Structure prediction request, 487 residues.
Amino acid sequence: MRPFYAHSLEGQPPNTWETIEAHAYDVATLASGFSSRFEASDWGRILGLWHDLGKYSVEFQKRILGANGIEAHLESRGGTVDHSTAGAKHAGAQFPGIAGRLLAYCIAGHHGGLPDDTDEDGGSSGLKDRLKKPICDWSAAPEWLTNQSPPPNPPMIWSDRSVVRSFQCAVFCRMLFSCLIDADSLATEAFVRPDEARKRPGPPVNLEELSATLDRHLKQLQSSADETAVNSARAAVLAQCRSASARAPGLFSLTVPTGGGKTLSSLAFALRHAVKHGLRRVIYAIPFTSIIEQNAKVFRDALEAAGDNVVLEHHSNFEGSRRVQNGDDIEACVWGRLATENWDAPIVVTTNVQLFESLFANRKPRCRKLHRIAGSVIILDEVQTLPVALLKPTLAMLDELCRNYGCSVVLCSATQPAIEQRPGFPIGLSGVREIMDDPPRLFSKLERVTVERIGEIEDSELAARLNAHGKPPQFCDLWRIHCFRGS
Prediction:
């Protein structure tokens, strides 16, 4: 029997092509490793082994041979052959019940995206219709590949509310889907585009080394700072963040007023917390791109001594790990482009939109990174900007990431929103621990402005008062307009 191929190499003879068995093994190995982070390695292994069972059909082999001009199967040179439904059907038949269903969702959608159960538009893209769809005969698949033991129940902390359990099941499915599609993409790239694959990150950066590098940078900053009340308060913020890093993973709040140094102090907490509890990366999510660019530069400057390819910036205004200037940073930009596909970086600076839209997405490009979020420290800066209309799913996702995926979440703000669970607000978070010992006292220490009402005055008097204090740099005219017109 001649080999069954999963991938060809353009211009190369079939004896250099990748067999289905080799590809399935590689994907299963990667997906198993990815899903082990949330103790579901057997699930990932089965997904990898079964995702391409449909490629054992004569029709698919004719297409891959005909497309490369190896055999005169002219009718197979165009179009596609559905190779995803076979594995989905097999999973449902082998494991009746929820396990088979979850595996089927992931396999059926590993190219086109996670399907709905039923196509609400009246089409046939829903999983129910896919599982009824006639497909090509793939019975040539070897028994060792198709005959697998059912995966064990995931050791999750299930809610006692059915609606929450359904949500937890959906998140588990998305995480498995992410493991499969990232593993499939990486394994395919390694075979078809090995030069590209070699530009991806190497072994993970040691977070303990990053934490030590940050500590040295912070010590340098503190030694060169003047002894003022503000700098003393900032040092106290940093000390409390370092102390709190030993606490068990889960939900935290960091309430620090503007000017309190929370950017680097929160990173110090995150890196020490990750080292202490075996977490893998820090994800810093911010609502505004202008702040992202500023914070990413601060992080890169602080960690520069640890080497390149440490801080990944991922948002709509930025492609790559850093801006390319005069062509000097092409390699760094390539690394950044590849790393944004699956967030394979120790520190990711991104937007709330990128983070949360990915967590609720169903398409391959956005979902590849989801499994990398498991076992991460997630810092939500300016958390009060979370959209009120989307609080219910957002808070449910944050709770689930901490409950079953080994994450710690830091709600970071000078004005903490009232999102803790309480009577009348059942969707809120419970068990949020404040990192600062005494936020009101900290605010009083960092108070730098006193607000007094002066009542109504003439424009000329207001102008005279403002001019007496000098012109605010760059914003003089705009400030005057706002003060005079009240707009």
